[in-house]
Specification:
heterodimer; A: mainly alpha; B: mainly beta; 8-stranded antiparallel β-barrel; 11 strands
């Protein structure tokens, strides 16, 4: 893999697309008097960066041929959901209903082509219910964190998890999944940097939806269609939960930058283990 | 009005057959022996050289009819999961959604639709299903021999060659580092049904 090509199309282009989308989108939304303009811009920017990485890798087929061709449709829908979540806040029960529907949609889009003729067996249903529950727990947890902490503080922890997800997917056999995940990471990085100057560009209610459901789809695809070890997928999915420890108990007294650093380190432990597991499972090198 | 016209026609056909120097061959159907059948392919890497890969699981059957090539039929199925390039990491990559996506598309299949004779070979037009996409392709099929197998059963062999563009079948990742055109060569040894 050409490293220049990799840096350009997986890091630089998605980051620039996300930064421009977030800055211009936020400015435009504010001009139009849209409530929560910054959150709306972040949701669209994360999706735009992810799509930029996938389109730079290879244009998806229309109509979709294979499972990866479905990712842009999911991301597009998540951008729309994120936009609506931020501009038209709905009551708590309605947000949970939306999350449940999106979690089921993620499974239908990603697992659908792999379902055998004997579906649904009891085991299948148990696994799928577990996945939906996992997505909902991760989603609720991250929304909770984003509601109490700024993007500037939360950013490093999420960047650590997203970056490790990208590395683990790359190691597990699919370069394209790694590149899409890398694009999401770069977009998140751009949003994080922008949030230093524009604090209203927050991840909560909008950006989190794009982040959680896209990462869930990529991890499930990496596990089912590629060779991502199950333990690595679980470690990556669970890693953001550890960020809570950086904001609870005695850690509450820490300065913002200390909390950000602690959360990043805590998340990096399971995420790093996941990369190690993917590396160990990888059968060797080739170019 | 000739008497016994049917007998005369029969006699004429027997004379013609022997005059041609050989009996008319009936259609013979053969079932592939996976152990002695192979599918290898060739693709260009970095625009520098060709490297070869193979699939280790191939099944199929064919019907040969020398007298009436239009009656010939060829079909084979390959398990995509059996791709083997001699490098485990590369095989894993080839099985992933970046290329064959073997979970979603476990089978590669070919089925002939029309056959014409072309010298010693057959020109076979059929449908190839690869990566979930079915497209018409033209395959050159050469009968490579006949004989008896170890158990004494009649066997026959064919070699099929075709050139495809992988992008025609939706396999469009990494075109550039890896070529688009793929030369496929199938050798099938089969036992008469």
């Amino acid at each position: 893999m050409d490293p220049v090509n990799l840096v350009l199309f997986v890091v630089v282009v998605p980051a620039v697309v996300a930064a421009v989308t977030a800055a211009l989108g936020g400015w435009l939304a504010r001009r139009l008097g849209v409530a929560e303009a910054g959150r709306a811009a972040v949701a669209v920017a994360l999706g735009a960066g992810t799509l930029a990485a996938q389109f730079a890798s290879a244009l998806p087929h229309f109509p979709p041929i294979e499972v990866t061709d479905r990712i842009p449709w999911l991301v597009g829908l998540l951008m729309l959901l994120g936009l609506l979540e931020s501009t038209h806040p709905s009551p708590g029960w309605a947000r949970w209903k939306d999350r449940l529907l999106v979690a089921i949609l993620v499974l239908a889009l990603v697992l659908g082509p792999a379902l055998g003729p004997d579906w649904p067996s009891l085991r299948d249903l148990a696994v799928e219910c577990g996945l939906v529950l996992g997505i909902l727990v991760g989603w609720g947890s991250l929304e909770g964190l984003a509601a109490h902490r700024s993007t500037a503080v939360l950013g490093p922890a999420l960047l650590a998890v997203a970056g490790c997800t990208s590395a683990a997917l790359l190691l597990s056999g699919s370069v394209v999944l790694g590149r899409i995940s890398g694009g999401l990471t770069a977009a998140l990085g751009a949003v994080w940097v922008l949030s230093w100057w524009l604090p209203d560009q927050a991840l909560g209610r909008g950006g989190v939806s794009v982040l959680v459901a896209t990462v869930a789809a990529l991890l499930i695809e990496g596990r089912v269609y590629s060779f991502l070890p199950l333990e690595a997928a679980i470690a990556l999915a669970a890693a953001p939960l550890l960020a809570w420890l950086a904001f609870a108990g005695p850690a509450r007294r820490l300065a913002s930058w200390q909390s950000a650093l602690l959360a990043a380190v805590l998340c990096l432990v399971p995420a790093g283990v996941a990369v190690g597991l993917a590396l160990r499972a990888a059968p060797g090198e080739y170019e | 009005m000739p008497r016994f016209p049917i007998l005369r026609a029969l006699g004429l056909s027997i004379v013609c057959t022997f005059a041609a120097g050989r009996p008319l061959a009936a259609a013979e159907t053969y079932v592939a022996d996976p152990v002695h059948s192979s599918l290898v392919y060739r693709i260009k890497h970095m625009n520098a050289t060709y490297f070869w890969g193979r699939f280790n699981s191939i099944n199929g059957s064919f019907t040969l009819d020398e007298a009436n090539p239009a009656q010939c039929q060829f079909e084979f199925q390959v398990k995509a999961d059996s791709v083997d390039t001699g490098n485990a990491k590369r095989d894993a990559h080839l099985k992933s959604p970046d290329f064959f996506n073997v979970v979603q598309f476990p089978t590669i299949a070919f089925k002939s639709q029309s056959v014409t004779r072309s010298g010693d070979a057959y020109e076979v037009v059929g449908e190839l299903t690869l990566h979930g996409v079915t497209k018409p392709v033209t395959v050159k099929v050469v009968p490579t021999g006949k004989g008896k197998g170890p158990g004494g059963a009649p066997i026959a062999g064919i070699e099929a060659t075709l050139m495809i563009k992988r992008t025609d079948f939706g396999m469009s990742n990494m075109v550039g580092p890896l070529g688009d055109e793929v030369l496929v060569n199938v050798g099938i040894e089969a036992r008469r049904k």
